[in-house]
Amino acid sequence: MSDVTQIVIRELPTDNLRADHFETRTAAMPTIEDGQLLVRTILMSLDAANRAWMQGATYREAVKPGDVMHTYSIGEVVESKADGFSPGDIVAGEGGWATHTVMKARAVARISDYRPLTHHMSLLGIAGKTAYHGLMHIGEPKAGETVVVSAAAGSVGIFVGQIAKAVGARAVGIAGGAEKCAWLVDELGFDAAVDYKSPTFFKDLQAACPGGIDVYFDNVGGKILEAAMFLSNLKARIVCCGAVSQYDTAEMTSPKGVPGLIVVKRLKMQGFIVMDFGDQDAAALADLSNWYNSGQIKVVEDVLEGLDAAPAGLVGLLKGENRGKRMVRVAPDPS
Amino acid sequence: MSDVTQIVIRELPTDNLRADHFETRTAAMPTIEDGQLLVRTILMSLDAANRAWMQGATYREAVKPGDVMHTYSIGEVVESKADGFSPGDIVAGEGGWATHTVMKARAVARISDYRPLTHHMSLLGIAGKTAYHGLMHIGEPKAGETVVVSAAAGSVGIFVGQIAKAVGARAVGIAGGAEKCAWLVDELGFDAAVDYKSPTFFKDLQAACPGGIDVYFDNVGGKILEAAMFLSNLKARIVCCGAVSQYDTAEMTSPKGVPGLIVVKRLKMQGFIVMDFGDQDAAALADLSNWYNSGQIKVVEDVLEGLDAAPAGLVGLLKGENRGKRMVRVAPDPS
Questions:
Q1: CB atoms < 10 A from the CB of A106, how many?
Q2: Which of A197, A260, B1, B230 has its CA 20 to 30 A from that of B274?
């Protein structure tokens, strides 16, 4: 069998991630054991959480130098030593930055016949389900309430704002730069968007939320979380989804007012991962599909071409250059 | 009518509270208007929250120099201009550090015939209900889980640990000093207690919670909250009841790991005040009474004698010198 191309971690970053923290190598095609699948990578997800994996153990083990960089990917089974899987099956699971990876059959999910395949990374994938479950089950927005989401132009943020609108709430996005903010309002229908890079960010956010904040969906942590807590109404809900401001740095910033503001305003802050609500995935996918089909939710994807695009693509994602779900196409869809 | 004795705020503290931030004065007996009651003070509650009121608006308006110091008190109606209230009625409500105060009839609660009156400040009062509602409705301890409570020897803490035991959980207290810690275990039946003043505090807490922390009832914030978050299990619940470490100081300390640990461990942190669960007071009082009558819960009270004891009593409470519910007896119970 031919060789496989892999991108490995050359050195762990201590501060900002750079593309040269990775290097490309060629290796012999892996062989599989009982219960395993050899999978040809089609799409690889790029996520801020990838950077957190380099800081140490999170909800999964840490990655280390010499490892093929981990990722969530969709691919085609080319060889199976597991019952129920055959070459040609399309599966999703924990893969690596590589043209081919080995997956455990019991840890993969089958991908339905719904196409395009990219939607299984966005609308119907982890991004869409994370937005849905976090907002609906922890944020619990009521019609007329104000929902604020940070990293609003990102993979999860675009859905949070649009779902908020779909259930009758006001959606306010926080993003970097005037252009992105205008895009959130003009293209995705957010009621307002605020540039966190502006020197008047706090006042801008306050002005965008004249009735205060009822639900804050936090993807970033740090000073933006702090601002949202100060502007929260009594009994506001803070959905703790990520802390991207804390991933690509050696400097951690804790928001002031913890636990003081939580006590005084009787706030709820709650973290989650998408699997916590796996028993409600069917309802999530049904709602998301319906809103998409009715035009209430737009899908925005940022697909980079070729395995080699991954390192710079992740660096750029951490700088916020993407709009919507960023992924890498390693190979064309099977015909 | 005779004069009234009042203790007023002479100057707001900027750092540690001292007794000389207050001064005593004599004033003319207040007159009341329609809807008001003149109440002779019997018992005044001393609470860490009193100090927070001096930092600015909390769940109630701030207090300011020249104000009679606010308090929650129990007293006897001596004059009524409100329907349904007569001299001799025993009521509880927002009063002041004074022999007599004016209360709005619609803002007071009638005290039942249950005696001793002091229990309406502890077991059946705000302390007991705060412990019960916070632990049961936010902490939701399951049998066999580990519940940790800070300020464990304080008015709320003693009940949190004992309620945890009553529902089959393991109770670990955090308190200041070896003597208090021994008392929590020997007298109140906590499974373990840890001295936060010890240089090995973190390791001690870790050793006292070999299975990690499932519920942390936080009365203090700061570094102790931080330690508890680091030792929390996945999906642990943190009951944000108070932040006494942050009240009597100009220096605020935010715990590290917010929101990182909340995300990674999928923690829930939630603030509350006792009134949030007012619709479940009856169940709380029934359970608390039953546990008291069966000997599962002991009541510990720290009753200081005389109005003049209030300033030093509050200063001492902030230093942690009390065990159980601290209050001031201003006048004997009516016979």
A1: 9
A2: B230
